[in-house]
Amino acid sequence: MMAKKWDAPDESVWGKSRGLSPGLPPYPLIRHLLDAAAMALHLWDAYLSENQRARIADGMGLAGELERARNVVGLCAGLHDIGKLSGFQFCSLHGSQYLSAELGDSRREMTADRFGHDVAGLQVVQEVLADLGFAADAELKVAERLAEIVGGHHGRYHRVENSVAPAFLGGPAWARQRTAHAAAVHELLGAPEVPGVFKAPAAVLVTGVVILADWLVSQEDYLRGRQQRLEPVLTDHFERSLKDAPGLLVVAGLARVRLQRKGFSEAYGIQGAPNPLQLSVMEELRQAVGEGRRGGIVLVTAAPGDGKSETALEAERVLSERFGTRGYAFLLPTMATSDQMYGRVAKALLRQAGENAGLTLVHSMAWLNSAYADDDLETQGVLTCDGDEVGERRLRAEADMRPQRWLRGSKRPLLAQFSVGTVDQALMAVLPVRHNALRLLALSGKTFIVDEAHAYDPYMQVLLGRLLNWLGAYGVPVVLLSATMPASVSDRLIKEYLQGAGHKKRELSRRSFNAPYPGWLYVDGESGRETSISCARRHEQMHARSMELDIAVEPVVHGRGGGSQARLAVMERVLKPVSEGEGGTALVVCNTVGDAQDTYLQLRQRFDQRSHEEGGTVQLLHARFPGDVREARTREVTEGLGREGPRPVRRIVVATQVVEQSLDLDADIVISDLAPLSLLLQRAGRCWRHENHWTAHGYPGDRGRPAWASGPRLVVLDPIAGGGKTPEQWGEVYSEHLLATTSRAIAGIEGGTISIPGDVQELVEAVHGDNPDFDWNSPGASEVKAWTVHKGKETAERSMAGLLAIPRARSVSALHDLHDLPGEEDEWEVSTRLGADSVRLLCAYVQEDGRVTLDAEGEQPLPQATSDGKMPVSSVREVMRRTIPVRADWLKEADPGSVARPESWAEHPMLGELRVLRQFVEGGSGRPVKVGAKLLWLDKDLGLVRK
């Protein structure tokens, strides 16, 4: 490349204006570009994992030339706002008044049409790079990729052919300044050469780095300080930016911490030695990984209560050392299970000197969790836009939506070194939403752990498979945990990962990946070689956790009538030993909230007149409690039936599906409504869960099992047995085909006993596995219809997910493929789960004097926002913690006045979306509100009731 002298960058061209000191000139664009380039270099050095750096370099054809790849990343960040050298400069009166005469006088010639500066940048980057001397065919192709990255730095990729009006870009003076700005960045970076290739997956990661660098150096406090003390020359400014970058990373909570790895018992606070499954991972997985270079996937299978979570963390220790990842993302099915796992992970990190490590709880309501105290909820403004694509309302939304410290802000929590949350947050990475590249960056640097991998419907399984495909392309080590996953599902997920890693679909179709149960299967990403737990360790695990589960099927009748087979009559009979003599603990799992509420009332009346709130024997837990109540009840239930105790003398917990995954409960007996077999086994996993541990180390408080509890027992209340039918109130909670198949399967269990773990996989396959030999002539037309409906729904869900998800990693040619569905820009426009839309409902109380309060007692007035929609963080939290997710169609026929939010909330980004159920207070409690054909009210003991 020939050396050439360029114009000096005109520092009257501004990069940041809004939110800065109005008495000073705006922050010069060239300075912001250099800030971003410096931060990108530091992110490469200190934030990216070894694995990420290798994948980016590989994607540029620069394997082994990491320094060259690093400089290209810096160049991408240094050019990200080049599109602001355009009509963008006139979108701020304060900014444009400082423009030099040569540029300012051209305003009349430039179009008044408004275009995004990201799209302008996409259009001009190739021309700018050509001016710098990148003219060879290969260089021009790579320049097009750099243009896509620049165009995508606001989180959404655009088509290269998208264009802005030439008048928006300005005349020759503007073009010269674009080249001058780019040349200054290029020179200070050491004049990096563009690579010969730039593959799409690598470019996606680089986009994530550019977005993150831009956000970090666009923080309001930082920009105000730099604005007031500009270094006289750009070289000094760049040096200062390089020195500032580490501090910004630390303050943001993104600095990496090296854990002081402890032994198993010390790391996890577990009394006793690791079990055979955990020992196998600690010893044999290391050998299986060997000298692998491109990641691998581990599937861990074991019965509930076998310590899969600790097994996963030990696998992470092995995999991260081999594949150069830093930290992990631990994803679970629900917010409740995520909340509990967050506490466990936090303790494990503290025991290993990880107190300064970034650890985040990642789900939509995470900031309301009590783990985040009010004094942590600070807002740090990030000035990422200045008027061309985002209006005032959106800017307020980005400031208010997540009022936590930097790392807890919107879309950022996955960037932490360690994160625990719902799998939905990860699945957003493969949906066509804004900033999906940032999510892929966040996930690709960590070991990826998915708990309860069997718990997702076909729609979510396809999205999970698509994400595994991208992680396979990035060489990310993956750990999948499951107690009841059909082989067909695990086989598909492993093949998606391997296809992403570069294995041909045709070759994979000839293979089958079957994990031993219990045990683990490891498949190397590069070679496709598979290794599994040794037979000796597997047999040790089977012996150590061997349990004979007694399954008693009780035919029941729902609703009125039924006599001795009435559901509640059967339940009372089964629970009688708990209420008498020595007592004991029982877990009753219902399929709907309504059933749980009715069951709780009946059992409370029968066994203990005291309510849950009054410390009664019978407790109730489901998803339709206000958030703060649900969190408290989950904690109370978990402590009462947990490993450490204290163990209650008598306790009957009535719950819904919220207890069947990842909650660490142990009951003397489990009673469950009929559910698909895999879920029945999950529920049964809450029975005698800690028996082996207590046998070895003693029962909490020396209170052992009651005499009537001679072994683990699952009682299934089956409305289908004996020719019955599925209760109408269950609706479409579960597939009729799966319920009928499960009913037949458990009725046919020889001796009424399941051997755990020996019989588990066979039973799961019989009900949930692919069954090409389905007999269309048996057992009857109704079953054929149910099977057809089940398979049709499954196929439709898979097809819908396949259409919505972004392409597989190796199928992407142009980066706009990641946003190729018109209108699907923001996260609330797509869903990671199928089902009825939900809204959040706040139950408020109208007092006799007309005041509306948060409490029935009338002591907490409903907070009101100021005229601009703002409200103190503590007030927002107070409101949101009391909300309940409900189906949107419940409120369709509601009188608008009965569920309308306060007018002052309309502009608030969170409160503006709420529905407020106004209950008139009578006798100290709220009266039911007629909503359509139903009555709706919040009962302090029952939660939200709908009758």
Automatic annotation (TrEMBL):
Claim: Zinc is one of the keywords in the record: no
NCBIfam families on file: cas3_core, cas3_HD
UniProt-listed InterPro entries: Cas3-like_dom, CRISPR-assoc_Cas3_HD, CRISPR-assoc_Cas3_HD_sf, DEAD_box_RNA_helicases, Helicase_ATP-bd, Helicase_C-like, Helicase_Cas3_CRISPR-ass_core, P-loop_NTPase
UniProt keyword terms in alphabetical order: Antiviral defense, ATP-binding, Helicase, Hydrolase, Metal-binding, Nuclease, Nucleotide-binding
Family: In the N-terminal section; belongs to the CRISPR-associated nuclease Cas3-HD family.
Protein name: CRISPR-associated helicase Cas3
Pfam families xrefs: Cas3-like_C_2, Cas3_HD
Domain HD Cas3-type span(s) in chain numbering: 22-216
Keyword Metal-binding in record: yes
